[in-house]
Design goal:
Blueprint: E1 16-19, E2 25-30, H1 36-44, H2 48-55, H3 64-71, E3 78-85, E4 88-98, E5 111-118, H4 127-141, E6 146-151, H5 156-163, E7 169-174, E8 177-183, H6 188-210, E9 214-218, H7 227-237, E10 243-247, E11 257-258, E12 261-264, E13 276-279, H8 286-296, E14 300-303, H9 313-328, E15 332-334, E16 340-343, E17 350-353, E18 361-368, H10 371-382, E19 394-399, H11 408-417, E20 423-428, H12 434-445, E21 450-454, H13 474-483, E22 487-489, H14 492-504, E23 512-517, H15 520-532, E24 536-537, E25 541-542, H16 549-561, E26 567-572, H17 580-596, E27 602-606, H18 610-617, E28 699-700, H19 703-723, H20 737-749, H21 758-766, E29 775-777, H22 781-791, E30 795-799, E31 813-817, H23 820-834, H24 837-840, E32 842-846, E33 852-861, E34 865-872, H25 875-880, E35 883-887, H26 892-900, H27 919-935, E36 939-949, E37 954-956, E38 959-963
Parallel strand pairs: 5-6, 9-10, 9-13, 10-12, 13-14, 14-15, 18-19, 18-20, 20-21, 21-22, 23-24, 23-25, 23-26, 26-27, 27-28
Antiparallel strand pairs: 1-2, 2-3, 3-4, 4-5, 6-8, 7-8, 11-12, 16-17, 16-19, 29-32, 30-31, 30-32, 33-34, 33-36, 34-35, 36-37, 36-38
Length: 980
């Protein structure tokens, strides 16, 4: 692209891809002198009414002077941006810096006039809102703090764009024109509006991929076999409700059909729209296919072709080109190297994947970055026997492959809104944007359970995955995910176990567990497993091996009616001579008892009792009950391995609000379409009502697996209760935000850093009410004695050399030195043992009251953001990794839970008769450090070590602090897709 002849180079970093309101994409970029013809063509396609609204007068065409003005920018005082699709303009926005008198100006003037023009065919897609976010970010970068816009009163659409943006604004009316002025500094409301638009747009973009009305499979071989032909057959055999086409440029011109499907040589030859294209051609032919799809108006692509970033550097560049090309046409991509997508809804019935069988319909959303793991998960959820017995079902399945475009974040947005999904299961090998994933996970987990297993935990991300660098260990990332409400599990077996329970049963109200069954040994194993998982089990009730179905029913009914019980685990072993009839009777007895008390979860631990597991499931899966008139008229008969149409719906989470709670029509469908969701971004979806008589009980082959799943549900339920009242970030009167900011600016201006000296560190912490005990250098014994006299006895003598710092166990710290004699003796011993004073760098510090030594740290991670960490001081805690973490800013409730979440927390609360520590003072210290880092992003690392927490108050004995220019916060900027 040609460089502007004016003052600044072309700002390539302003280029971005955005998702629009309808799920399509557009490219936003600066307008340059090369765009004259595009601008003229664009203007010719704008209606006279839109031109009138833009120029306040009839303006049929642009003059040469206009074209020059609108294409020549200095990228500082005059900036123009265009939204493009297929390389052509669909909308423009520009600003011109003005002075106080409204005339053109340069810096330091900080106000600019802004004006938009959107092609009529693209109005209503959210293009202007997206352009406003980007032009505002550009203006802030160039020192502009305020926009002014003049709009005709009849131009209500443009007035709404400004007023809905969430910025602080003023409105006036003069000479028949509405004048709007608004500050460009992001506000809580403007960020909330931006996030809400992002949620809706990305959810809609995934919905377009998963609910197409027409599909073309490109690359269907002329002979049976091969990837394309297999996908075509899978779509056809699943009974796809839309139009299906086979495409292969090598087909003879006279061939019009392939495997009973209309066949064409090119997508261009298809009469009518194509919503989704499945691309299964060799990688070198994909660009040609993408161009044909873009020109035909295809909305999205599933690229199963391999040979991209997973194959090396050349493939990575090929992958970047693929994404850029697809986005230029407004298309989103699943893949490349993808296994495919599945939607079991009777309205769609799409199996655009390599899975030969469609999973049973259900209410579990399944995402897997790995095709192999996706197959394993589908298989486990599909079969009745094996690892987790019983039947469960899938609403939608996405295997993203290299996730070059559509990622887990996008699909998560869709499942949050999806009324057909109650539980989300995700296998992730990498998290491309942890900060955004955490935000979305918290939002989703507040509405429906989100269970995640993360592969590649101890190594690099798989080839082909573009992943942001993070300095945080996996354990820290896991802790942050749990803080966001994610149910973190370690294996795909645990993933399915937890999903099965959460899809079928309500959440437990607490950790109290009743255990009953016909095997004393199995009951004791379950009891031990509950204790190991932190639950509170009641003593097992042994019904003996002679127990009948009626005995099980009575015992379970009593347990469910007991207010001291929050969940029940039923253990069952086969009796000698017991047959399938007895299995069915027992299953019916258990289901009958749960029907009378549906508010508590019930799990079954069975030993080789396949008949019981099948009976408990009743071959129902998690599919909703369909009324006879609810199925599409052209729906084929279900295959033998599918769930029957009259399958009852599970006793799904009566605790999970979800969209399906909305009233249904007589045909059983929601009166409103999936998107846009009437709940909006601020209202969590509601869970579907449980049909009468549907009480599916999950069965597990081992006590440990059942109890582990139950423990996950208990922890998640507690998180849900805590999330309803997350607490607040308290204000402290003695915090001096402005003083700290001035000190930081001065230190950075002087080139101070990254590590501050002791005096600067104490000064900065003092602005936030954090007092650090003074330590005085002691380069000689005489200097040590003089420092002790200044501080007052008793004192501590400490070596600050890195290998001895905070290491009392190695002799690098001498405490309770009561007089000068003890001090000099300790000084001599220390230098004799470890080296010269120059090597040890000893300091003298006044003794603090006895207490528990802890460590408080905060760090800015480039991927996850600001993280606050807490643990006890000492080698043992470091070796055990006993450190807890929270995302900053931390609320008072989070600080309270942070202190209590480490395994060694009992030492703070009077363990074995010791005096309890002042945890209130400790929580306040955590909150003050959180405020410091949140208020000043230039503070990139804080370490307080040790902090001695006494019975009353605490003492910060050591502190270090690092400053750096604030890192970029992409979550505060305009909406963009990841750059390629």
């Amino acid at each position: 692209m040609q460089t502007s002849p004016d003052r600044h180079e072309y700002p390539a970093h302003w280029e971005a891809d955005v998702v629009l309101r309808d799920g399509g994409t557009a490219r936003v970029r600066p307008i340059t002198v090369d765009d004259a013809d595009r601008l003229v063509s664009f203007y010719e396609q704008v209606s006279d009414e839109s031109k009138y609204y833009r120029f306040f007068a009839p303006y049929p065409r642009l003059s040469a002077k206009d074209v020059h003005r609108f294409t020549h920018h200095d990228f500082v005082d005059r900036v123009g941006l265009a939204a493009t699709v297929g390389g052509e303009f669909i909308a423009t926005v520009r600003y011109d810096r003005i002075g106080a008198d409204g005339t053109p100006a340069s810096a330091p003037a900080d106000e600019a006039e802004v004006a938009f023009l959107v092609q009529d065919a693209h109005q209503g897609r959210g293009v202007a809102s997206a352009l406003l976010e980007h032009i505002a970010a550009v203006a802030r970068e160039r020192g502009i703090r305020r926009f002014a816009a003049e709009v005709l009163p009849a131009n209500t659409k443009m007035i709404k764009v400004f007023t809905d943006a969430g910025y602080t604004q003023k409105r006036s009316f003069e000479d028949g024109v509405v004048r709007l002025e608004f500050d460009l500094e992001p506000t809580d409301r403007s960020l909330a509006v931006q996030y809400a638009r992002e949620h809706r747009a990305e959810a809609r973009s995934v919905q377009r991929l998963l609910t197409p009305g027409s599909v073309a499979v490109i690359g269907t071989g002329r002979t049976p076999g091969g990837v394309g032909r297999s996908v075509l057959g899978n779509i056809r055999d699943a009974g796809f409700t839309g139009r299906l086409f086979a495409v292969n440029k090598a087909l003879p011109e006279e061939q019009k059909e392939l495997d009973g499907v209309p066949a064409h040589r090119s997508v261009r030859d298809i009469d009518g729209p194509v919503d989704l294209a499945v691309v299964a051609v060799p990688a070198e032919h994909v660009p040609e296919v993408v161009a044909e799809c873009g020109e035909h108006g295809v909305q999205g692509l599933v690229v199963v072709s391999a040979g991209y970033a997973e194959s090396g550097l050349d493939g990575r560049e090929r992958q970047r080109a693929l994404v850029r090309q697809a986005r230029s046409y407004g298309m989103r991509i699943i893949g490349p190297n993808a296994f495919g997508i599945i939607n079991t809804s009777p309205r769609v019935r799409l199996n655009a994947s390599l899975a030969p069988e469609v999973p049973r319909p259900g209410r579990i959303g399944l995402f897997a970055q790995s095709g192999a793991i996706g197959v394993a998960l589908l298989s486990r959820l599909h079969r009745r026997g094996g690892g987790v017995t019983g039947v469960t079902g899938v609403s939608t399945f996405v295997s993203s492959g290299n996730r070059a475009d559509v990622s887990g974040n996008d699909v998560l947005q869709y499942w949050y809104e999806d009324p057909d999904t109650d539980v989300v299961l995700m296998y992730l090998e990498s998290i491309g944007n942890p900060r955004k994933f955490t935000r979305l996970a918290r939002r989703t987990a507040a509405a429906k359970p989100l269970v995640v297993v993360q592969g590649a935990r101890h190594g690099a991300a798989p080839q082909g995955h573009a992943v942001r660098a993070t300095r945080l260990p996996h354990a820290t990332v896991s802790a942050l995910l749990r803080q966001a409400g994610v149910i973190r599990v370690d294996t795909i077996t645990d993933l399915v176990d937890a999903g099965l329970l959460l899809a079928r049963q309500p959440l437990p109200a607490g950790p109290r567990v009743a255990i009953l069954g016909n095997s004393e040994s199995l009951g004791l194993l379950t009891y031990d497993a509950c204790l190991a998982e932190g639950l509170r089990p009641h003593p097992p009730q042994d019904l003996t091996t002679a127990a009948s179905a009626a005995d099980f029913h009575a015992a379970l009914s009593r347990a469910l009616a007991d207010d001291r019980c929050d969940a029940v685990v039923v253990t069952a072993i086969p009796a000698v001579g017991e047959g399938s009839v007895a299995d069915a009777a027992l299953a019916q007895a258990l289901r009958s008892a749960t029907a009378a008390a549906p508010s508590k979860p019930v799990l079954v631990v069975h030993v080789e009792l396949g008949g019981l597991a099948e009976a408990l499931s009743a071959a129902a899966g998690t599919a909703p009950r369909l009324k006879p008139d609810s199925a599409p008229q052209n729906a084929p008969q279900l295959r033998p391995d599918s769930a029957p149409q009259n399958a009852p719906q599970p006793a799904a989470a009566d605790r999970r609000p979800g969209p399906a709670d909305q009233p249904r029509t007589a045909a059983g469908e929601h009166p409103e379409a999936l998107h846009p969701h009437p709940a909006g971004p601020d209202r969590a979806p509601a869970a579907p009502e449980t049909p009468e008589g549907a009480h599916l009980i999950p069965a597990y082959p081992a006590a440990e697996r059942a109890v582990r799943a139950l423990a996950q549900a208990v922890a998640y339920a507690q998180w849900r209760r805590d999330a309803a009242d997350p607490g607040r970030v308290p204000e402290y009167d003695d915090i001096d935000v402005k003083g700290a900011a001035a000190l930081i600016d001065g230190l950075l201006a002087r080139g101070q850093g990254p590590a501050l000296g002791p005096d600067e560190t104490c000064d900065l912490l003092g602005h936030y009410g954090i007092e650090v005990h003074r330590s005085l250098p002691a380069p000689t014994p005489d200097a040590a004695a003089e420092a002790a006299r200044a501080l007052g006895y008793p004192v501590a003598l400490k070596a600050t050399a890195p290998h001895l710092r905070h290491r009392a166990d190695l002799g690098g710290v001498r405490l309770d030195l009561a007089d000068e004699e003890q001090l000099r003796r300790s000084y001599a011993e220390m230098t004799e043992m470890f080296g010269t004073a120059e090597e040890l760098r000893p300091v003298v510090q006044r003794m603090a009251p006895r207490g528990v030594d802890v460590v408080v740290r905060a760090v800015i991670d480039p991927a996850a953001g600001a993280v606050l960490s807490f643990g006890l001081a000492g080698a043992a805690s470091q070796l055990l990794g006993d450190t807890a973490h929270r995302l900053i800013p931390v609320t008072d409730r989070e600080a309270n839970s942070l202190v209590r979440s480490i395994r060694t927390a009992p030492l703070l609360f009077g363990w074995r008769g010791s005096a309890p520590a002042d945890t209130r003072a400790l929580e306040e210290l955590l909150l003050r450090v959180s405020r410091l880092v949140d208020d000043h992003p230039e503070v990139v690392a804080v370490t307080l070590e040790p902090v001695v927490v006494a019975s009353h108050g605490l003492s910060v004995l050591g502190a270090s602090l690092r400053l750096a220019p604030p890192p970029a916060r992409d979550d505060l900027g305009p909406r963009t897709l990841p750059a390629y």
